[in-house]
Structure formats: structure tokens, C-alpha cells
Amino acid sequence: METTSRAVAQTPAGEGGEQSPSARRTVDGYLRAPFPWYGLDEAFTGPRWLMQVGTAADGVVEHGSIGHGDEPSVRNEHTAGGEQDAKERFAVVVTVAAHPVRRSPDGTGLLEATSVSSAAWLAGVGLLSFTWPGQMDHSLRDDWLEQQTETAWVLADDLDGPDWTALSLPVDGVPTPFHYRESEFGWVLAGSTEQGVHLGAYGRGMSAYGLAFAVVKDIGAYA
């Protein structure tokens, strides 16, 4: 999943790291997914918004994200800890289909398996898409993003390492173990469900400790 996911995760970030409107709010891809979508449970009564889906090399929908709360803007060192951060409260839930290594449709190779690490990496890169050093020269921004993306991958590949702590949160009402970490940009967590999907999440301004996840009953209602 590494190659496909990295390409998909970096697609929304355009000039200044903002996501383009065309990359968001289309329900078509979500409806094509062969797995259930997750979001925050009914205890969350704020705004919810679609972001985008990602596909594997065979065109099958593999993952996607649903936002909750304030739609975030790009954070830089001028706003870190300042008034803008105080106003931004959001959490994004990433659903990733769980599957083993499988042969590609043309029979020429193998498609990578997905795992909790896949969800952790997608969540980490998702948080980066709303983070950008405002003082950095434009010519260096791609290098910065590539470096931070590699760091997110290394962290996601070592979920039992010292950068992660254990956190139990409800999923469909059942206490479920998650891997959790905080950074200067926000927080990231990842775990698995009994419904055959892995969950990742990231956010700022909303405490991860009070979250609960549930299957989205009607993703078509987001259209």
C-alpha cells in the first residue's frame, strides 16, 4: 500500500498546502467502497464533511477521510499556540480497508497489504497537509513535506516504539485499543475494528481522549 497511499495522500496539498475543493465533498467514491465508513459517534453534534478517497493500483477504493468540526486551515509558526489554533477544533477519521497481500488484476505483481500502520501513516500525512512553515521559502516547501512524510512513515512503521502510547476508545460501543501520539502539529491515533477496517484519526483543538467512533449509517447523506 505504501506507493499508492503516498501518492494519494499528497494529492490534495496544493499551493500553500491547502486542499483543492475539487478533491473534497464528492460522495461517489465513498459509495463505491466495499467496506463500511467510520466517523465520530452521535455524541458529536458539530459539522461533518467529506474529504476524499484513495484507491489501490487496481482502482478499488481502499481508504478515505471524514472531517468533523471546523474545517482546518494551514498552521504555521506564526499561529502555533495562538488565537487561530484556539478557534480551530477538528478531528478527521480515516477508514482503511483491511486486506492481505493480493495479486494485481493483470497478474504481473502483488498489491501490498494494509495494516494499522497504513492507517497511522495516512493520519500522520493528513495532519501534515494542514501544517506548513510560513517562513519557509517556497522552493524548500516540497523538501520539507517530503522529509516530514518520511518521518510519519517511520513512526507509523514502529507502533510499539517510544513515540506511541496506548489509548482505549469506544468503537461501535466496544472499548478498542489504539496507538496514540502527539506532536507540535496536533495528535494522531490508529487502531483496528471488528468490521474489517483499520481506523486512523488526527486533529487539533479537540481532545482525542474523549472521542468515540461508529459506522456511518448513511454516507449518501453527505452528498
TrEMBL record:
- Cite the record's Basic and acidic residues compositional bias ranges: 68-86
**Region ranges (Disordered):** 1-25, 61-86
Q: Which domain of life is it from?
A: Bacteria
**Protein name per its UniProtKB record:** Uncharacterized protein
Highest classification ranks of the organism: Bacteria, Bacillati, Actinomycetota, Actinomycetes, Kitasatosporales
